[in-house]
């Protein structure tokens, strides 16, 4: 397995049905499904909103720091098994504080699990506080100010949830404030929303990465800009199939994006809902005939370069990658002719 960084992962989207039921029982929360099978039967999504409705209904089981810690640890354990050596994860505090869960419980539960996984797995990580874009700018700003007053580490801010009708420019002041605080900035754009939203994320929010970005391919000038500036795009193939952003994996534009020189990475988005974790995404792409061995190495390297890990950690990860590639091919830094399947 090649060492890789996962850069687009929503912790709330890692809650497996079994975990939802187990935490519900622990917290005496009643669920509107009689069993796990009934919950799973609702995983046939028609678009982004149909998924968001279910995902954010299920977080009702999360009440205490322990719940947030358990959710985070379960993801990190699974990601480690998938070859993830560095993870930058989204959390949406508004989805929890709006239900009356104290912000400190939420943040400390997650941050505690992240720092523990450095000890247990040698896996580095970073927490990105994401804002629900269908909520007001005032709510996002109040959330940012509140997390800044806590003594809990986070590396940046993000923008997610229902995209269409909520352009990046709505959050200009919030991103400006984050930039002044020295935080990294990312935004979902061009998943369901138009290429204009990607332009806005770049020019108004000054983001360091675009989450998804698929629809950039509709605008040649935008592709040129993204290629010239080597702006990373955190693409999520199985998510795109599940949410009908693409019809099927065989028509996914990942290979075309690589071909055009875009700095793409592969990520799992909401793995408990979309059919799998990072290794499952790669396996599915390989099966669909999308990836050559050289692409796998490129994607792993892109993920490290696009991460917000400090330069020392990046160097370590790049060395790990070079070693893994050399072991595969017998030639350091070269990509061998072996078939792609099973390489990650
Ligand atoms: N794919 C996605 N797009 C927007 N918001 C999200 N929140 C969780 N997953 C998301
Ligand atoms: Zn996402």
UniProtKB/TrEMBL annotation:
InterPro entries: A_deaminase_dom, ADE, Ado/ade_deaminase, Metal_Hydrolase. Binds 1 zinc ion per subunit. The active site is at 191 (proton donor). Residues 3-323 form the Adenosine deaminase domain. The record marks 212 as: Important for catalytic activity. Transmembrane segments: none annotated. CDD domains: ADA (cd01320). It is an enzyme of class 3 (hydrolase). Residues 325-344 are annotated as: Disordered. Its EC number is 3.5.4.2. It comes from the Bacteria. Its cofactor is Zn(2+). It catalyses: adenine + H2O + H(+) = hypoxanthine + NH4(+). Substrate binds at residue 270. PANTHER family: ADENINE DEAMINASE. Catalyzes the hydrolytic deamination of adenine to hypoxanthine. Plays an important role in the purine salvage pathway and in nitrogen catabolism. This is Adenine deaminase.
């Amino acid at each position: 397995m090649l060492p890789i960084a996962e850069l687009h992962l929503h912790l709330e989207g890692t809650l497996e049905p079994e975990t939802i039921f187990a935490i519900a029982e622990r917290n005496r929360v009643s669920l509107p499904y009689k069993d796990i099978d009934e919950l799973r039967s609702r995983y046939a999504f028609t678009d982004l909103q149909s998924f968001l409705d279910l995902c954010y209904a299920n977080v009702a089981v999360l009440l205490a720091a322990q719940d947030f810690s358990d959710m985070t640890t379960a993801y990190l354990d699974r990601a480690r098994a998938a070859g993830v050596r560095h993870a930058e994860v989204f959390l949406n505090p508004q989805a929890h504080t709006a239900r009356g869960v104290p912000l400190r419980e939420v943040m400390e539960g997650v941050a505690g699990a992240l720092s523990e996984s450095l000890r247990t797995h040698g896996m580095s990580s970073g927490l990105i506080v994401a804002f629900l874009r269908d909520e007001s700018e005032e709510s996002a700003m109040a959330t940012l100010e509140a997390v800044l007053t806590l003594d809990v580490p986070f590396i940046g801010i993000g923008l997610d949830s229902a995209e269409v009708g909520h352009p990046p420019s709505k959050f200009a002041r919030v991103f400006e404030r984050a930039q002044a605080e020295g935080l990294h900035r990312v935004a979902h754009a061009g998943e369901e929303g138009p290429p204009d939203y990607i332009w806005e994320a770049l020019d108004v929010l000054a983001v360091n990465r675009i989450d998804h970005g698929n629809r950039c391919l509709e605008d040649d000038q935008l592709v040129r800009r993204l290629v010239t500036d080597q702006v990373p795009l955190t693409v999520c193939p199985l998510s795109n199939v599940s949410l009908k952003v693409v019809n099927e994996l065989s028509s996914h534009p990942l290979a075309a994006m690589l071909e055009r020189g875009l700095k793409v990475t592969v990520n799992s988005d909401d793995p408990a809902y979309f059919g799998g974790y990072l290794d499952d995404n790669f396996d599915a792409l390989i099966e669909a005939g999308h990836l050559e061995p050289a692409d796998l190495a490129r994607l792993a390297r892109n993920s490290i370069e696009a991460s917000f890990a400090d330069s020392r950690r990046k160097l370590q990860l790049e060395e790990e990658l070079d070693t893994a590639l050399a072991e595969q091919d017998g030639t350091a830094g070269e990509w061998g002719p072996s078939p792609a399947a099973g390489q990650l």
